[in-house]
């Protein structure tokens, strides 16, 4: 019975860190975000003050302050791969290739792909992005595509979107690092482990007494 209970405990621990990352992936993703933000900055060719009349509220979820704390923050970390995928597809379109210098755009797309590859087959993938966030992200990017089309992909419309993507990648929380030490500590301190240990003590004592006889 104890092995079954221990397995259930392990599943509970996995659920509590379903969107966490191992150390290597965590730091790779952190560096990738810094790199991507830098490449987005290099894309800037039009002063934003020239484009103030083109500003638009895309009603995107990363502008909601609640995702920076509590349960919603934990849920939002599960959406990181979905977010990177949407940004990649936005900048991989023909319209985007016509708007930006080839080299700078290529660096941005390579960086985004690096982040997506880092998230493949990791714990972050074991829990789906909550439907509410997934729908909000999809709706936002559909709105961005409609906005660009309505503006005929003008330089200012792309500048507004570029600035919005900087906000998006800065605001959406990255999955946290999974600590092996914390997991081992939790297993050692669990009631199941204590009960199992106590159940073995009488047997060890009995064997010692019989050997003395």
Automatic annotation (TrEMBL):
One of its GO terms (molecular function) is cytokine activity. Residues 187-213 have a biased composition (Polar residues). It comes from the Eukaryota. Residues 174-213 are annotated as: Disordered. It is found in: Secreted. Keywords: Antiviral defense, Cytokine, Disulfide bond, Secreted, Signal. GO terms for cellular component: extracellular space. Residues 1-18 form the signal peptide. GO terms for biological process: defense response to virus. PANTHER family: INTERFERON OMEGA-1, TYPE I INTERFERON. Belongs to the alpha/beta interferon family. This is Ifnz protein. The lineage of its organism: Eukaryota, Metazoa, Chordata, Craniata, Vertebrata.
